[in-house]
């Protein structure tokens, strides 16, 4: 028997609309909603327990390019977050360079399934910004150049 798992994220109105379009054979929305409500706390607890260990951070670090290390090291200096503009200025890099480097960080996550993404997008008073999650920032800040 085939088993298909689909994850749909969004507010309930969006999810309901997507479920309605899945076609014949899809379970009634009520059944899906009840199952989702029952599973949600377990999934949230499972995700909350997953934390980067220092060893995992060091292994991740070794896989990064020198530019990616520069970007993450700069972010680690700003635990509250750093604006997009300030990050570019601190590194002396253009937006495309920083963006491409952050993209490479995301690609390196492939070997670390189940762990939260180390870089978070945030909104600061001066606009878009980024920060490292604390468990990753702490280890990166302690690494020698």
Descriptive notes:
This protein has two domains: about 10-50, no CATH class; about 55-140, Winged helix-like DNA-binding domain superfamily/Winged helix DNA-binding domain (Arc Repressor Mutant, subunit A, Orthogonal Bundle), CATH 1.10.10.10. The radius of gyration is 19 Å and the shape is globular. It has seven helices and three strands; from the N terminus they run ααααβααββα. By secondary structure, the protein is mainly α.
Inertia-based shape? globular
**CATH-assigned fold name of the largest domain:** Arc Repressor Mutant, subunit A
Share of β-strand residues = 5-15%
Uncertain spans = none
Separation, N- and C-terminal Cα atoms: 53 Å
CATH superfamily of the largest domain: Winged helix-like DNA-binding domain superfamily/Winged helix DNA-binding domain
Number of helices: 7
Main beta-sheet strand count, sense and barrel state: 3 strands, antiparallel
Gist?
The chain has 145 residues and is mainly α. The chain has helices at residues 12-21, 29-49, 54-62, 66-76, 84-91, 95-108, 134-142; strands spanning 82-83, 119-124, 127-132. Strand 2 and strand 3 (127-132) form a beta hairpin.
Structure characteristics:
globular; 145 residues; three-stranded antiparallel beta sheet; single chain; mainly alpha; 10% strand; Arc Repressor Mutant, subunit A; 57% helix; 7 helices
């Amino acid at each position: 028997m085939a088993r298909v798992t689909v994850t749909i994220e969004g507010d309930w109105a969006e999810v309901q609309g997507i479920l309605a379009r899945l076609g014949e054979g899809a379970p009634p929305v009520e059944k899906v909603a009840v199952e989702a409500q029952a599973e949600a706390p377990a999934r949230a607890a499972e995700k909350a327990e997953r934390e980067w260990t220092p060893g995992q951070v060091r292994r991740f670090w070794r896989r990064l390019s020198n530019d990616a290390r520069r970007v993450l090291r700069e972010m680690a200096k700003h635990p509250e977050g750093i604006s997009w503009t300030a990050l570019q200025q601190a590194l002396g890099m253009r937006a495309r360079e920083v963006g491409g480097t952050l993209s490479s960080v995301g690609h390196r996550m492939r070997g670390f399934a189940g762990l939260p993404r180390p870089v978070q997008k945030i909104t600061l008073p001066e606009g878009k910004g980024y920060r490292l999650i604390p468990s990753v920032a702490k280890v990166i800040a302690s690494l020698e150049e």
